[in-house]
């Protein structure tokens, strides 16, 4: 790996401000010159503007066209007629900063800050298509019941050699030994140490932004890593995942390699997941999944599981948002392909990890690392919420290998998943019909774009044989 040519800014204080006045003081104290004003789009990509701090502090709101929430991963736009129309999609929405997300951009060579924004229409209504608003909407339903969700994401990714020609397969990068990893080194400390310089910078940058990394491990794939974030508020953790993805990508580039959150970047290696641990507490912080007297699981816990079993097939396109995601969610891949649940059973899509009563939780193992964190977290919490308010009952827990179980299967493709989401009245109601319509239209367009590409497999087996 190559070292950085110019040392970026470091030593910033933790992120967050109460209001514009406190933000102005922090920006002045840190000698910040520019600020990146961003909003996560449907793909979890940062859209927005970079402006001088003085302009940011004197601007009530930043304006961008509504179409930023209708842009596909290829940069195109689907047919918007029947949804918002071409004219309306190009009208301005207004982005207001969430000062709690104010943080440094520690890899920038000049003092720079970043802040995440929420989107509103001119009349003050939240923009329903905004992923951050979708998650806020789901969280508010919990709060109306006196419940508070707590989540902890686990995020897998690969380090790969730079790849400037997409026709060539990805390769593992060369570490400090001068050799690429050739065998799977799951949980190996020495394999992580191959990239010590990169991870030291990653930790430093994460600390400068207030990102609370719990653990770093080497996963089972070649140069595949996993970062666990500490548990907390769903919106706060979604923000942290959003910021962490930017952080590790930028850090890897400084070391002349790529970090990728593509769900299945290499054909013969495991896919990358974003497992989401979930629990629900009351206003006093008591875990509602455990009986306060006996410590045994409660009916609410089992209903939460049942909700995810029942509604997850219709929510899969939010957890596996691209055609590549379904290469990970395939039999024999090591990823779960079902909605079974079990106690410490990693072949089930829903796993109850070993824990005491205070820490009882459910791990959803279905989301891919390519998922938008706001939408993936909103989806799993929405399914669990529906189970609790409807009093659903789960199936019996499984204690056997259900990797290839033909029952409780998930949709096999992006299009199947999107159609299920469109047809789910319950998820349309809880996530917002405007969002579901926008998301489905974008995903249909992405799939159509993908289908225009002829793969090497087709040329190899169909060119002369059919």
From TrEMBL:
Keywords for the protein's UniProt record, in alphabetical order: Ligase, Magnesium
Domain GS catalytic positions: 131-466
Cofactor names: Mg(2+)
Keyword Ribonucleoprotein: no
Domain of life: Bacteria
InterPro entries for the chain: Gln_synt_N_sf, Gln_synth/guanido_kin_cat_dom, Gln_synth_cat_dom, Gln_synth_gly_rich_site
Alphabetical list of PANTHER family matching this protein: GAMMA-GLUTAMYLPUTRESCINE SYNTHETASE, GS CATALYTIC DOMAIN-CONTAINING PROTEIN
Entry similarity comment: Belongs to the glutamine synthetase family.
Protein name: Glutamine synthetase family protein
């Amino acid at each position: 790996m190559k070292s950085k040519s110019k040392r970026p800014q470091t030593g910033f204080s933790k992120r967050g401000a109460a209001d514009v006045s406190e933000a102005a003081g922090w920006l002045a104290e840190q000698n910040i010159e520019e600020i990146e004003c961003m909003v996560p789009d449907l793909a979890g990509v940062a859209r927005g503007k970079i402006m001088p701090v003085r302009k940011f502090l004197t601007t009530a709101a930043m304006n961008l066209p509504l179409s930023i929430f209708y842009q596909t991963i290829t940069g195109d736009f689907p047919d918007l007629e029947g949804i918002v129309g071409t004219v309306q999609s190009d009208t301005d929405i207004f982005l207001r900063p969430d000062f709690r997300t104010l943080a440094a951009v520690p890899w920038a060579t000049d003092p720079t800050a970043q802040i995440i924004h929420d989107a509103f229409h001119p009349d003050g209504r939240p923009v329903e298509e905004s992923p951050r608003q979708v998650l806020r909407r789901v969280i508010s339903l919990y709060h109306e019941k006196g419940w508070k969700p707590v989540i902890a994401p686990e995020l897998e990714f690969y380090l790969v050699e730079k790849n400037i020609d997409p026709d060539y397969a990805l390769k593992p990068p060369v570490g400090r030994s001068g050799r690429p990893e050739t065998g799977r080194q799951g949980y190996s400390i020495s394999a992580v140490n191959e990239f010590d310089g990169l991870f030291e910078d990653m930790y430093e940058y994460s600390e400068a932004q207030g990102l609370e990394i719990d653990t770093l491990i080497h996963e089972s794939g070649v140069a595949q890593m996993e970062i666990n974030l500490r548990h907390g508020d769903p919106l706060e953790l979604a923000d942290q995942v959003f910021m962490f993805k930017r952080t590790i990508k930028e850090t890897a580039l400084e070391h002349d390699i790529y970090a990728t959150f593509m769900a299945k970047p290499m054909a013969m290696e495991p896919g990358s997941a974003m497992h989401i641990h979930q629990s629900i507490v009351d206003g006093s912080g008591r875990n509602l999944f455990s009986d306060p007297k006996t410590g045994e699981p409660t009916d609410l816990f089992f209903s939460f599981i049942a909700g995810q079993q029942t509604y997850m097939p219709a929510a899969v396109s939010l957890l596996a948002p691209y055609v590549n995601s379904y290469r990970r969610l395939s039999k024999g891949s090591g990823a779960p392909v079902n909605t079974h649940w079990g106690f410490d059973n990693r072949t089930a899509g829903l796993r109850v990890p070993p824990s005491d009563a205070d820490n009882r939780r459910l791990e959803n193992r279905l989301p891919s690392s390519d998922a938008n964190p706001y939408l993936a977290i909103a989806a799993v919490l929405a399914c669990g919420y529906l189970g609790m308010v409807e009093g659903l009952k789960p199936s019996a827990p499984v204690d056997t290998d259900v990797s290839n179980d033909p029952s409780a299967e998930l949709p096999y493709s992006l299009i199947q998943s999107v159609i299920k989401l469109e047809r789910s009245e319950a998820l349309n109601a809880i996530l917002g019909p405007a969002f579901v319509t926008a998301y489905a239209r974008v995903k249909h367009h992405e799939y159509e774009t993908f289908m225009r590409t002829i793969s090497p497999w087709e040329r190899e087996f169909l060119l002369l044989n059919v």
